[in-house]
Design a protein that fits this description.
The structure is a single chain. By secondary structure, the chain is mainly β. It contains 2 helices and 14 strands, in the order E-E-E-E-E-E-E-E-E-E-H-E-E-E-H-E. The chain has helices at about 140-145, 205-210, and strands at about 5-10, 25-30, 45-50, 55, 60-70, 80-85, 100, 105-110, 115-120, 125-130, 150-155, 160-165, 170-175, 240. The strands form 3 sheets. Strands 12-3-5-10-7-14 form a 6-stranded mixed β-sheet, with no helix packed on it. A 6-stranded mixed β-sheet has the order 4-13-11-6-9-8, with no helix packed on it. A two-stranded antiparallel ribbon has the order 1-2. Strand 8 and strand 9 (about 115-120) form a beta hairpin. The chain is globular.
Amino acid sequence: MPTDGTETLSLSLVPAAGYQADTQGFSTPIYDTLADVPISATPPTVSITASETALIESTGNTTTLTFSLSEAPPAEGILIYVDSETEGVISEFNVFDAVITGADAPFPNGDVSGFYLRMTEQTATLTVSAFDETTNPQLTPAQALEGIESVTFRLAGGQGYLISQESSTVALTIADNPNSVVIPGNGGGGGGGGEGPVNNPENEFNDTIRNSRSLDRSQRHKPNLRDPGNPGSHRYHAQSRGSR
């Protein structure tokens, strides 16, 4: 069957009224099949660490996730996949003010439990704080009360890299304030409370999954981890610097 061969997809922001566009564009090769994707004879090994594991919403402290490759990535970069067991957990972070170096802006997976990060340098960092729900006027104080939540991010398998055996996970806690305690009976999987996930506007970030019609679990699936062209339908708007 004839093919077009490897092509390059290039995207860039276009200036318009009300905003300025970053001149930095994005490009990635598009291959016909996985067999066409060049694979290093010895794929680099990726590791992940966190500078701070206890985030406090009221203080706005940050953590820096550092991703390191055992060798420099190819010119097109390497798409790293990071996941957790907590659906929608990415909405717990202030992703709109995230600062990224050494990589393109990350984007979440289908159930917003994790994200993809295309590393363009051997070391990439993602600095982010926890989102303070008390700043959301749609939430009542009871809905904003979560106590202390926990999430563990792990490096997941993908094309073109291996995972470090020593540094493959980071465990974080998110507290409302310095005096927070774990609240029993939280339905969000992390420890916390509020008035439940269904009626809480905080969860509207991914309400298309939670409020959709019932489907068999066999019909629900995460994106193909080996298909960088179909990683998810949402993308962060984040600050990216030094990614080239």
